[in-house]
């Protein structure tokens, strides 16, 4: 579903991704862990073309977004990245729109579905994330956990078949992380294909089919949660896990 080959990214002389290679199969939940600054966000952002790679390939559903450092056309990029939804650490909700407005903006702009279908879907998705009664409320009235659940519902409005999460609970007070992780866990149980960058090690261990440990711009180690948390092969993986 996603194939990343020798992905490279530099900001000036700073090499942030050094030949990162991995693949994600349909229905898989992959957790990405690693120290701050190791390139996790840059990797995720490259998949949806929020960052432009300086080398390597990203193939989504068999279509190259970038192949050996050469990007597809703007129209192809839009088409290739469209099956992916992204949820950010800081929610990125539109403050001037209600919760429902946030959910419906993109689908109403794209006009691929009728208003009736869009309204029905936003209602369904608000119920799915446990916010049935919050449709008419503005984001400023919500807790962080509620905002993040709105952000997840908004990402689902476009029927993504891949969801990317960049530290979805890092900005939340500890007592609010559970309600967000529960929604992500439910998506995993429904076999949504997901890449989840997270500091929640217990969550990664429970929910991920596979864990990727990034360090210093590379995938240092990857494997099942049992392998990575139970018997990490590298000293730097052990060091990182002992600090978390
Ligand atoms: P992580 O998400 O693992 O914390 P990031 O992908 O955010 O890591 O960052 C990896 C490295 O790239 C860091 O050293 C960071 O400072 C640098 N970096 C990220 N974005 C930019 C940018 N737009 N310009 C320059 N350096 C950046
Ligand atoms: Mg990050």
From TrEMBL:
Domain ABC transporter: 2-241
SUPFAM superfamilies registered for this protein in UniProt: P-loop containing nucleoside triphosphate hydrolases
GO MF annotation terms: ABC-type amino acid transporter activity; ATP binding; ATP hydrolysis activity
Pfam families: ABC_tran (PF00005)
One Gene Ontology term, aspect cellular component: plasma membrane
Membrane topology recorded in Swiss-Prot or TrEMBL: Peripheral membrane protein
PROSITE patterns: ABC_TRANSPORTER_1 (PS00211), ABC_TRANSPORTER_2 (PS50893)
This protein's UniProt keywords: Amino-acid transport, ATP-binding, Cell membrane, Membrane, Nucleotide-binding, Transport
Keyword Iron-sulfur set for record: no
Predominant localisation class: membrane
Subcellular location: Cell membrane
Family, per entry: Belongs to the ABC transporter superfamily.
Full protein name: ATP-binding cassette domain-containing protein
């Amino acid at each position: 579903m996603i194939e990343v080959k020798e992905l490279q990214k530099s900001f000036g002389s700073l090499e942030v991704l050094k030949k990162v290679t991995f693949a994600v199969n349909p229905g898989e939940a992959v957790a990405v862990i690693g120290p701050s600054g190791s390139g996790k966000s840059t990797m995720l952002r490259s998949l949806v073309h929020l960052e432009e790679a300086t080398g390597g390939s990203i193939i989504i559903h068999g279509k190259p977004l970038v192949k050996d450092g050469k990007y597809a056309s703007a129209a192809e990029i839009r088409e290739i990245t469209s099956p992916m939804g992204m949820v950010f650490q800081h929610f990125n909700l539109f403050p001037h729109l209600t919760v429902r407005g946030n959910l419906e903006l993109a689908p109403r702009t794209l006009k691929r579905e009728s208003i009736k279908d869009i309204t029905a879907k936003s209602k369904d998705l608000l119920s799915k994330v446990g916010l049935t009664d919050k449709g008419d409320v503005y984001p400023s009235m919500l807790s962080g956990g509620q905002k993040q659940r709105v952000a997840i519902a908004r990402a689902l409005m476009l029927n993504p078949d891949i969801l990317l999460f960049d530290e979805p609970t890092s900005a939340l007070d500890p007592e609010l992380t559970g309600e967000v992780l529960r929604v992500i866990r439910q998506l995993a149980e429904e076999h949504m294909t997901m890449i989840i960058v997270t500091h929640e090690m217990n969550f990664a261990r429970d929910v991920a089919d596979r864990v990727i440990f990034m360090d210093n711009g590379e995938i240092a180690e990857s494997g099942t949660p049992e392998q990575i948390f139970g018997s990490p092969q590298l000293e730097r993986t052990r060091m990182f896990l002992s600090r978390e």
